[in-house]
UniProtKB/TrEMBL annotation:
This is Carboxyltransferase domain-containing protein. The keyword Membrane does not apply. Keywords: ATP-binding, Hydrolase, Nucleotide-binding. Residues 26-305 form the Carboxyltransferase domain. It comes from Pseudoalteromonas ulvae. SUPFAM superfamilies: Cyclophilin-like.
Length: 312
């Protein structure tokens, strides 16, 4: 273990995350983990870290750090300016920091969340088998809290930095209008056919109150035959329709149970895209089958297994 970075400015909302806390929903503990899983995994692989090594997820960026030792980092995710000692740096690549260097991560220009990884992985407070931060429950991360100024970030010791970059053809683009693929759930029949048609044939806009718990969408009111059900377990990507008729896509920090009717579940890959969308962005839903969802996930797993890193 070594002291790695001093936090000059923590940014708008920065949290320590690993891949998430699994198998604890029966205790009322949600998964948490990175909102954009692909960017998180790439940041670790650029540094030859395990996929689960903890990173800092910065929502909207705007952070500054001082290097307390020589270390290797990577920054992926949302488009933002990256400076080392006022010199511009590329994202999606490994970067070397020398002791005393000033790292600045600007505010996100496209997308919402960027990821700061360090060789060896950051260290935090593990809770229930994970260092993922859940602020609502005050567990994981830094004693359950977001990153604050004047904190010293520690990391595991790691090997020498490898200068490599993710091939530009594999770097994602953060479009502000997107299609969300959705699989119908067993409560689909609680919605009249006219309401289902309205749901799939109209655009919705991302609400400013969207966060890691759920993305609220504004659009035509969707009516169901019932407004309330007995509470039951809720999956990642479930689309709840509350009494106001405005859909909510449940995300990483969702509650573990809920009683609003659910029209279906958004494909997890598209939830990751949704997490990078700013308020006012437009989304449209597209129905897919379970087989199509499985094929999309298999293709994504193949792409993850065949990432192309170029020397730089």
């Amino acid at each position: 273990m070594k002291q790695a970075l001093y936090v000059n400015h923590p940014g708008f909302l920065s949290q320590l995350q690993d891949l998430g806390r699994f198998g604890q929903a029966n205790l009322g503990l949600t998964t948490s983990g990175p909102a954009h899983r692909f960017a998180f995994i790439v940041a670790n692989r650029l540094l030859n870290n395990p996929d689960n090594a903890a990173q800092i997820e910065l929502s909207y960026g705007g952070a500054s750090f001082t290097a307390l030792t020589d270390c290797c980092i990577s920054i992926t995710g949302a488009m933002c300016e990256v400076l080392i000692n006022q010199r511009p740096q590329a994202r999606w690549r490994a970067l070397q920091l020398q002791q005393g260097d000033i790292l600045e991560i600007g505010y996100c220009q496209q997308g919402v969340r960027c990821y700061l990884a360090i060789a060896g992985g950051f260290l935090g407070t593990p809770s229930f088998g994970s260092m993922a931060t859940t602020i609502r429950e005050k567990i994981g991360g830094f004693d359950g809290h977001a990153l604050t100024a004047k904190r010293v970030l520690t990391c595991q010791s790691a090997s020498t930095c490898v200068n490599q970059m993710l091939d530009i053809s594999q770097q994602p683009h953060y479009d502000q209008d997107t299609v969300l693929r959705i699989i119908a759930g067993y409560q689909h029949d609680l919605f009249p056919s006219s309401e289902i048609a309205r749901f799939f044939h109209h655009d919705f806009q991302v609400d400013p109150l969207s966060d890691r718990m759920g993305y609220r969408l504004n659009g035509p009111r969707i009516e169901s035959k019932v407004s309330q059900l007995y509470s039951e377990g809720i999956s990642f990507g479930a689309v709840q329709i509350p009494p106001d008729g405005q859909p909510i896509v449940l995300m990483n920090d969702r509650q573990t149970i809920g009683g609003y009717p659910k029209i279906g579940t958004v494909l997890s890959l598209d939830c990751h895209k949704l997490s990078q969308m700013v308020a006012g962005s437009k989304v449209r839903f597209e129905a897919i089958s379970i087989e199509q969802a499985q094929n999309a996930l298999h293709l994504h797993q193949y792409q993850l297994a065949h990432l192309k890193f170029n020397p730089c």
